[in-house]
Structures are given as structure tokens and as C-alpha cells.
């Protein structure tokens, strides 16, 4: 893995050596957390054409862009919201939950979580998603 793809955590509490966290780990944490928020139908790749990734653990970081410094991170999350859910409320819930999860699991300070709503899903709840 390229050094540019890692975050090295430097802190006095790690006296035995350094701890490095791959950017992909931050992306995965944010993606998994975002897809668990009520009202999120899925993540979007952020492409203008907007091919939507439906929920699934296989590619949870596709709609997540991460910038990481030594102690801070900023995230952009591209989502599709389920019809009849208030978009502002869903967005705020994503921001709060992603910030809490990333900070708790990585020790990085999340300075911003930008939500980009790429569409609205009009599909009714299917029995497949309930299972």
C-alpha cells in the first residue's frame, strides 16, 4: 500500500510504535455507517451520470470521498434518499452518525461531513430488503 494511502496516528499513548490506518478503512467506516441511517436507499458513485450502488456490503465505500491529514479528516458522501423521508433530516443524521463512528474508531477529528443527495428512490420496500 502506498504511503499516501495511509494515515499514521502519532500520539504519546502509542509508545511501542506507530499505528497506521488506511484511507480505505475510513471510507468503509463512513460508508457502512451512512447506509445504516434510516432513509438512505444507497450510495452513489458521485458521477454526473449517477449510477447508483444499491445497498450491499460489497462496495460500501463507492460513494465516499475522504481527505485525511495527520489528525483530521473531511468526508464527502454521495447518497440516494428513500422517497417520503425528509432529506434535511436524513442528511443531518448521516453527518452525526458518520462523525461519531469515524472519530470513535480512528481517533481522527472529523472536521466536516458533506452530504450530496444524488437522487430519490421511488421503489417500495421489497420483501428482499426486509429479509
Q: Overview of this structure, please?
A:
The protein has 3 helices and 7 strands, in the order E-E-H-E-E-E-E-H-E-H. It is α+β, with helices and mostly antiparallel strands and 131 residues long. The chain has a single domain (22-130), classed as Cation efflux protein, cytoplasmic domain (Alpha-Beta Plaits, 2-Layer Sandwich), CATH 3.30.70. The strands form 2 sheets. Strands 3, 4, 5, 6 and 7 form a 5-stranded mixed β-sheet that branches. It has a two-stranded antiparallel ribbon with strand order 1-2. Helix 1 runs antiparallel to helix 2 (87-106).
In brief:
The chain is α+β, with helices and mostly antiparallel strands.
Oligomer: single chain
What portion of the residues fall into strands of 2 or more residues? Answer: 25-35%
| Secondary structure tally: strands | 7
CA gyration radius, whole angstroms: 16 Å
The major pleated sheet works out as: 5 strands, mixed
Order of helical and strand elements = EEHEEEEHEH
CATH topology description:
Alpha-Beta Plaits
C-alpha geometry: elongated
> What's the mean pLDDT score?
81
How helical, in percent, are the residues?
A: 25-40%
Q: Any idea how many domains?
A: 1
DSSP helix count?
A: 3
User: Which residue ranges are poorly predicted, with pLDDT under 50 across at least 5 consecutive positions?
Assistant: 47-57, 126-131
Termini, distance in Å? 37 Å
Determine and state the CATH class: Alpha Beta
